[in-house]
Amino acid sequence: MSRRRRRTNRPSHDRWLVSYADFITLVFAFFVVLYSTAQVDRKKVSQLSAAIQVAFQQLGAHPTTTSPTQVPVEINQAAPATVLPADEEFPDLAALRKELGQTLEPQISRGEVTLRNGRDGLVISLKEAGFFGSGSAGVKAAAEPAFSRLARLLAEGKYAIRIEGHTDNLRIHNAQYSSNWELSTARSTEMIRLLVVRYGLDPGRLSASGYGEYHPIASNRSADGRALNRRVDLVVLGKHETVLTQDTGQENVH
Predict the structure, then answer these.
(1) End-of-domain residue from the set 35, 64, 83
(2) Tens digit of each residue's pLDDT (9 = 90 or more) over 132-178
(3) Which residue, 89, 129, 137, is CA-closest to 113?
(4) Do 53 and 91 fall within a single domain?
(5) Distance in angstroms (rounded) separating the CA atoms of residues 45 and 1
(6) Which residue range forms the structural domain that includes residue 41?
(7) Cα 95–97–102 angle (5° rounding)?
(8) Quick one: which of 95, 64, 70 has its CA closest to 84?
(9) Which CATH number covers residue 165?
(10) pLDDT score of 248
């Protein structure tokens, strides 16, 4: 009786080739991706990135603050932005200050209006005591003639105006406003509404902001200081002269 040979299953020593082939394939694919990425048109990528940023800004996802002298850049230049002439963008405000001083002399003498030169131009400061009721954004009826004279002078020139609302540090809470932020912003926006609707100023030259109690011009520790801080500043953007004093080296704006 013949004996059959038993077949033995010997382990294969070539199975590593399968893993090696898979590894080489992945490495090849990785370098192909790197090469294709390096060949992308950088200009197109830049344009796409800029377009996405503009879209987010228009949707309000990433709002930006633009100063009145900055000009927005159009990606495709489909609607070129209007550039103001230099003499209109930075008008000389000396004549305007002189006219305002004469027109508002009664209010200035009573301390209801102050005029000063700031870093950005002429600052017309309207005090709450003369122009607003306590905790209210509306202009007082008694102050309307003075405000009308002011608005008509501003309407005669093509000025860019930034309107800033300010309060003292005493907390406010009434039926209309729950914070000083709201009151200061409401006063500045109400001022813009009057200038546009009643006096015909160009809305494109106006901007509003509310600073609450955080930009005082006097100490809030006294009643007189708090009265000075409760104000609305109309900043007429224009030329100003900066001089360095010899003693301190500090800037003085004239």
Answers:
(1) 83
(2) 999 999 999 999 999 999 999 999 988 999 999 999 999 987 888 99
(3) 129
(4) no
(5) 83
(6) 10-83
(7) 100
(8) 70
(9) 3.30.1330.60
(10) 39
Beta-bridge mates of residue 117: 122
Together in a domain, 79 and 91: no
In whole angstroms, give the CA distance from residue 136 to residue 124. Answer: 20
Lookup result for tokens 């228009």: 58
Structure tokens at 103: 């027109």
CB contact set of 50 (below 8 Å; sequence gap of 6+): 75
Q: How far is CA 182 from the centre of its chain?
A: 17
Task: Flag whether the pTM goes above 0.90.
Answer: no
- Cα distance between residue 107 and residue 114, in whole Å: 8
- Show the tokens assigned to 35: 């090469």
* Residue owning tokens 């954004």: 137
Q: Look at residue 129 and tell me if it is in a domain.
A: yes
Q: Which two tokens stand for residue 85?
A: 């002439």
Convert the pLDDT of each residue in 81-114 to its tens digit.
Answer: 333 333 344 457 899 999 999 999 999 999 999 9
- For residues 25-42, give the mean pLDDT: 70
pLDDT at residue 46 greater than cutoff 70: no
